[in-house]
Amino acid sequence: EEDEEDEEDEEDEDEDELSEWEELEVEVEGGGSANSTRRVKGRSGRLANRVRTLRRAVEMRREAQGDDAGGVAVTSRSARQAARRARKMSGGGGGGGKRGGIADKREREELVVALAAEVAAQVSAAELAKGRKGSVLVFLPGWDEIKEAMKTLESLPAEQYDSLQVIPLHSQVPQEEQQLVFNPAPEGKIKVILATNIAESSVTIDDVLAVVDSGLVREMSYNPESAMSTMGTVSTSRASATQRTGRAGRVAPGVCYRLYSRAMFEAMPERPTPEIQRTALEATCLQTCSMTNSGVQAFLAEAMDPPAEETVTLAMERLKTLGAIAEVDGSILERARRRAEAEDNADLADPADPDSSSVEPSSGIKEVLTPLGSLLSQLPLDPATGRMLIMGVVTQCLDPVLTAAACMSSRDPFIVPTGMRDEAQRARRSFSERSDHLAVLRAYAEWRAVLAEEGFDGACQWARDNFLSIQGLQNLTSLRSQLLDELVRTGLVRRDDLGYDRRNRELRGDAAVNRHAGNEPLTLAVLTTGLPGNLASRRSMAHFGVMRTRLEENAGLHPASVSFARAPPKRRSELAALPQWFLYREMVLSSQVFLRDCSAVNPEQLVLFGGTKMAPPPEVAFSPPVPAPARGDAAPSGGHDVAGAFELPPEGTLNPANGVSAEAPSVQPSDHQSTPQSSASLGPSSSEPIGAAVLDDWILVRSTCADTSELLVDVRRELYAALAHKAMSPRRELSASQLALVDAVAATLHIVENRDAGALASLRRRETPRRDAGGFELDGGFG
């Protein structure tokens, strides 16, 4: 009992030592009223009342601290304790559940952002009153919070807002605007810099007088099971909080205002979560496998901050699927090692000698690099991106694939200035309306052309007009040059194929690896090898914007994608032009599951290059394939066969020598992710395969002509055989038959694109009303 009384006394002392902001939080959330005659409904009204109450409470606290009695609290300790109990009871006994908790968390974050803006405005006014010049640095989680804080500051009285120079500091802000943080503030003004954690250490601003720390940071985490990245707002670490405090007072006395209590500071993690515990580990596991024979899992378990075993296991499974790692019997490896030692050292006993073979070799399964994995480990890239580069060498369209690989390793060169989102989106769509990847590739190619013709100044003006970051484009050029050096070092590119553009190495236009560099359908197909498994289909029985992936049933295109559409199609041509299959760069969970950096692809591209594993079809009840619509008709909207909507004309051959035509296959998602067999109970029962193959255990490949699907699957097998040949002998040229196969694939994909474009053009012509000489309409939009 005495121990319990001592603990209660310690709790009372801790409550007496509550920080100012925690007491204010208790006062507001524990029943404090806004004392306002005007009532505003909704979340914005509650937020405004809370901010108004906090502002008034701060003024009351300052007045109380300025009294002669001094130190008079706004409320007594008993009142604070009662407020805490009431808040705990209301939070613990309610039925809000998970949804209510998420809403409360979001509302608290909004409150902190609004409070940070209010504190920054008050601190700025106080610094100006003292005659000090400099800046107030506000740390916020992300870009959305920065925009909200800017809106809060813009709502200040005109006289107070005119004394502020509000500057956002974020990667999406153009470089010219970012440089404003280093310039002195105009006379009679003070800078208010709204920044993310980029200002903790990456950027140093000398004239910071005060820091307002929200205590929040936007952090990316990775779920290996769903292959999904989650961008969430979490509390910063104590190390980061200390780093933020040190930003103030570098050249003059400064102060840091922390918008969280001392208890919250102590509850923060000591340091940020290590990157090895919150990112994909494919590249790490590949490098580890090339350095150790003890096993990747055991080696990484000895790290200072070891990753989860499930994360390593799933990363190794993906590397095995890519063909970079293989599992072999340890005894076979041991015998091979002994034989090699015996051949290299004549003093050792012969491997066939009984004395040497009597030693029992180590058993167990060992993980070893394949020739492809050994080559990928030499490239400073994600393994899948490296395989995409090798496929670009094989298909001889390396230049655009090199640019795409550089883009996957850096930031998006497109920027969105404050208040110009629609203009920036229109500029992006001017390069492509169906592919984010092609938009970047075309923009970079045009920038290089303008740079060669008009010089650097003209290229900079062109980039600004098209909402492109000049620094981002220059980084792409530098990364391309570095990757090209690595390809030359490994023997994938010959030195005589190189040229020089200013200071960087570049591929010559007539290089052998650039024969099909202008074939955009082939380039987009090769990009699918760099994003294995990142395929999505449009769900036909749901809203037109709902996508399905292998692991997610309800996903959507990110609003920043050029393929994003807010309204459903109204005309038959718009419905037919609606892409059914997409390649995406990453799947992110924020307010919902979004697919970022998407590109529309057709079934032929998927069958030839997409996915990671092509399996034979299951033996299930046979269902006759749905016939393809007549040329020019709209794609059906009620089934999965919309992907192969148009027939390929007879002249579209994969092999002109034998005249085998390749009609458009139908690539349809299975109803169940892991058991495609259950999706085929559609027709009369007969033990026949339902298609030519199953891709990644959820995409069924079928066609109105069985030979077409089988031919495409065979061609895919030959393409990956050429990839394996190149990985084993990077310096050896492809055979004549392999080069002929690549030329046929390039020609076929180009024909497929023209086929689809021609069918759409024909359908649009049929929708256009025709009028006679008297002006009367002869043909309506739906014919």
Shape: globular
State the distance separating the first and last CA atoms: 90 Å
Mean pLDDT: 77
Rounded Rg:
32 Å
- The tally of helices reads 27
Question: What is the beta-strand fraction?
Answer: 15-25%
Largest sheet: 5 strands, parallel
DSSP strand count: 26
SS-based class: alpha+beta
How much helix, percentage-wise, in residues?
40-55%
Strand order of the largest sheet: 2-3-1-4-7
Unreliably modeled segments: 1-42, 67-80, 88-100, 353-361, 620-664, 671-689, 778-783
Folded structure, characterized:
By secondary structure, the protein is an alpha+beta fold. 45% of the residues lie in helices and 15% in strands. The protein contains 27 helices and 26 strands. Strands 2-3-1-4-7 form a 5-stranded parallel beta sheet, with helices on both faces. Helix 26 crosses helix 27 (736-767). The radius of gyration is 32 Å and the shape is globular. The protein starts with a helix and ends with a strand. The model is unreliable at 1-42, 67-80, 88-100, 353-361, 620-664, 671-689 and 778-783 (pLDDT under 50).
